[in-house]
Amino acid sequence: GMKELGSSAQVIVSAANQIYDGMHNIIRQLRPGSLDNLGLVETLKDVIGVYQSQHPEIKMQLKLSKNLQSAQLESVGETVSINLYRIVQESLNNALKYAQATKINVSLTKTNDSELQLTVQDNGVGMDIDAVDQTRHFGLLGMRERAQALHGTFSLESTPKSGTTIKISVPLQTQ
Q1: C-alpha 92: how far from its chain's center?
Q2: Cα–Cα dist 102/52, whole Å
Q3: Cα→Cα distances 40→35, 37, 107, 133, 170, Å
Q4: What pLDDT digit, counting tens, does each position of 37-76 carry?
Q5: CB 3.0 to 4.6 Å from 99: which of 16, 90, 95, 117, for a disulfide?
Q6: What is the separation of C-alpha 67 from the centre of its chain, rounded to a whole number of angstroms?
Q7: Measuring CA to CA, which residue among 88, 25, 82 is closest to residue 62?
Q8: Is residue 108 packed enough to be buried (19+ CB in 10 Å), middle (13-18) or exposed (0-12)?
């Protein structure tokens, strides 16, 4: 009768909820974090936290400029967020995989003229930039392309034995 119908409706509703939650989680993984206003900052905190827990022997730091710590940041836009997130991920992978770094600093700064500057600095073995084939190496080309797609700039400073610094500046969309 009606009772069985009621309980199977419950089952359907709870199954639907689980599917929805599952989908939501998948979407969140594809599009990291809730990439709205401060989504980028939260996402970077998460990713650095994860890497840090996997590599306790390496000292990792995320430094944020004061104006990014307040929640009054206007949205940086999803495209910017995703690309900067991927660049950080790629940089961390490089620093861990190739650089044999013991310290990695990631800093994110919002300048007065509405640029977002991302710096990833490690104290690893460094590289001779002229000798590195950037088209094949370290996903550097990918980072450069991401930065350019955001109308930004990409620079790489590295010398053998003294670590590597990756700097990216991206103009923020004006609302």
Answers
A1: 10
A2: 11
A3: 6, 7, 12, 30, 14
A4: 456 787 888 889 989 999 999 999 999 888 776 554 556 7
A5: 95
A6: 18
A7: 88
A8: buried
